[in-house]
Amino acid sequence: MTRALGDIVKDILVHKGAVIEDYGQCIDVLANPQIAETLAIPELTHLCLHPGTDTEDTKHLTYDSELFERFSGLFEGKGKLSQVTITPQQVSNEKVIAMLPGKITLNNAVFKHKDTGIKIISYLLLFFKYTALSDEKKEGIVQLLINESNLSTSVIEGGANAVIDVLGELTERNSKDQLEGTKHIVLQAAHKSLESIIRTELTDMIRSLNRRLNRNIERVTDYYDAMITEARLREQRKGSDDTATKTEDKINAIKTELKWKTQDLISKFALTVKTELLSAVRITSATPVFLISINRRKGVREFPISYNPILKRLDTLPCEYCFSPDKSYYICDDALHIVCKKCYSECSKCGKSFCSVCYPLGCPKCVRKLNSAEGAEALT
Ligand SMILES: [Zn+2]
Ligand SMILES: [Zn+2]
Ligand SMILES: [Zn+2]
Question: What is the superkingdom listed in this entry's lineage (predicted)?
Fold first, then answer.
């Protein structure tokens, strides 16, 4: 889903006009004077994408390296947010309308196409870096594209190339220092989506952390259990009241130590994830927008879906809770929210499905029951 640092670096160098010979983990770079000066490298450099000791003409690029810091210089003056306008795509609206039933799957509702119009739509292309830190470290870059009008998100997989091509075609460009004028709700949706993307990215790491944590806790518990058994056996052999009290004190001390050791292990294997917005591009284009009307029971809701001129396909519907793209959606009864399977989940206690947008605190039935039980307890 995310791309390796090396691939992005290669794309940036080529985009900025360098000629590269790609050997996978290392590349030969023939840099133009601007790149050479900004990165402080000779015009012909052997660049390795792994840690190592730099020499005159061999440089190593890692997230911690000075060279990585200098890469941002290649975009200096461009600001954190760039704005581009792209030429509209030629799209056959009839073809897209005919494709709608195959592209949108609603599990508990129906929809029909209502209207089509050309609208100016803006997308934010966001580049995030994440660092997951525990007893090991994992880093990556996520490229997220979000439609600012309806919050439909897409993860750009495996190719900044497609995006760089689009940016190459731009007809107008200017820069700003920050995400000025960006609606709070857009950034909130982007962060929620980022959260679930990173969680998926880290699935293996989290699984391995839990496995190792459990194994370590088991080992420590076995060790201290053996110490307790040993203390009891020793007491049985001696058998006076005085030793019984001493043994209980000793066992309590052992139990306390086990508690501390377990806590230590939990902190050692705890995972913290930091994210950083590297840059953003607002891409604006005129594009066809297809209005659909969604019917769930007696409720009706209209929703616009745009033809995405950057990915050259129809946008997916957004899950209005986690903002991750999914294959099929559910429509909630109360407000007709569009939610993915995860966010229209069955309550683990009563088995009833509920909408996470309407009830972010959990199943409304069970939360109410829990609150009234707590209330009753507080009164007694
Ligand atoms: Zn969701
Ligand atoms: Zn419930
Ligand atoms: Zn809802």
Answer: Bacteria
